[in-house]
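W.,

You were right to be curious about this one. When I first looked at the sequence I had no strong expectations either way, so I just let the prediction run and decided to look at it fresh. Below is the sequence, 292 residues in total, followed by the output.
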Amino acid sequence: MFFGSIPALVTPFAAGRVDEAAFRDLIDWQINEGSNALVPCGTTGEAATLSDVEHRRLIEISVETARGRVPVIAGCGSNNTAHAIELTKSAQAAGADAALHVPPYYNRPNQDGIHAHLAAVAEVGFPIVLYNVPARTITDIAIETMARLSRLPNVIAVKDATGNLARVTAQRLACGKEFIQLSGNDDMALGFNAMGGVGCISVTANVAPRLCADFQDAMREDRWDDALALQDQLYPLHAALFSDASPGPAKYALSKVRPGFATELRLPLTEPSAASKAAVDAALVHAGLIAA
């Protein structure tokens, strides 16, 4: 159901409000450039600063604009189980295809608590993609816990941002070959797919959707030499987009490849540093996305 290049979409803002027209334009561009699915309202979409009304509206726009051309995986994570359930129901009502869920952050429950939280979300009866990102949540969905969750009928996939490639094999053995594994790290996507993954929920795809789609296509078609060449072409950009707090560098990069795209962020995020912007500029040149 989910595979290939899947952008974790940024949320465009104008004068403090969601810029719906810019968001629609971004979605159309992503689909036309070969992206295989969309993820609104994730970390890269500054979901932590969205109101529930904005959150619902962004998912609605994603579904309306995609028009069934690609699936929509709605970010619905919360460290409040009741709120996570409500966000999931809202995404389901908006017509999304699945919900993306992190384990509870800040509360830091044990593995039984993580399982109970995500199992409660799955009871909504909607496809669930787990999102394991310990660097942000300070909790880790242990392999044994993921195996338990994978046996639930609605838990179908994981976005793995642990940075541990060995997890791909361990999770395949624990959860089964049908369990979908998507990388959450652009820089590791080549090794991730070689070990059994099928795609990447990507920050870089916001900026270079065609290159990221070509990269994923190459691996799916067993053209590993082509994939390696594209990895080398994209690697500096993967690094540059995290040279300051994300998605600041990604929005700056979008303003360079799509002139007029607003770089506005919501506090507590602030404009990327001059050094970060310089790294992004150099990486965009290296990738062939802007002229030197």
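Here's what jumped out at me. Residues 4-221 form a domain with the TIM Barrel fold (CATH 3.20.20.70). And, maybe more interesting for your project: Strands lie at 4-7, 13-14, 17-18, 73-75, 98-101, 128-132, 155-160, 180-183, 199-202.

Coffee later to discuss?

I.
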